């Protein structure tokens, strides 16, 4: 009697052990719990290298291993055709180094954003505009530190928080932030490029 196994492999999965089982990279479903346990425990790859590396694999190879394990299995793939195993050597977290990198990135982002805002303000002469508006409304010269500059500074901060949709760990709504969207797009492009490059190796259309 044929036993249907539904296979959903993620496009990229990070692993920290060399013996990679099917459950590490995929969601598997089968009505038969015994078959399900056997499928989850199936070893699909053994990593021999000790360095961090990404491996491009094919779902067809996984299906072949499943059928070899149990010829009565009928596999229904609902996930990716090609997938990536991202191997990282197991190591204890270095919290000091992590904090150093975090602080460094925060400083760079803060200085870069401040420089971009200042150069924009100078390019469009925001200070001069504020002085002219203040002079027209108040009938006196601005000293450079008025309600307009204060309101602009507060509005700029509120606008940034609203645009990026979160402050610290607090999110304004459930929508993903622009940064999260860009990071997911970047990850998707990296995965697709790796898979496409693997398929183009040693061919005339290989761009590398």
UniProtKB/TrEMBL annotation:
<keyword id="KW-0812">Transmembrane</keyword>
<dbReference type="Pfam" id="PF12164">
    <property type="entry name" value="SporV_AA"/>
</dbReference>
<dbReference type="InterPro" id="IPR021997">
    <property type="entry name" value="SporV_AA"/>
</dbReference>
<keyword id="KW-1133">Transmembrane helix</keyword>
<keyword id="KW-0472">Membrane</keyword>
<dbReference type="InterPro" id="IPR038548">
    <property type="entry name" value="SporV_AA_N_sf"/>
</dbReference>
<protein>
    <submittedName>
        <fullName>Stage V sporulation protein AA</fullName>
    </submittedName>
</protein>
<feature type="transmembrane region" description="Helical">
    <location>
        <begin position="99"/>
        <end position="120"/>
    </location>
</feature>
<feature type="transmembrane region" description="Helical">
    <location>
        <begin position="150"/>
        <end position="168"/>
    </location>
</feature>
<feature type="domain" description="Stage V sporulation protein AA">
    <location>
        <begin position="3"/>
        <end position="89"/>
    </location>
</feature>
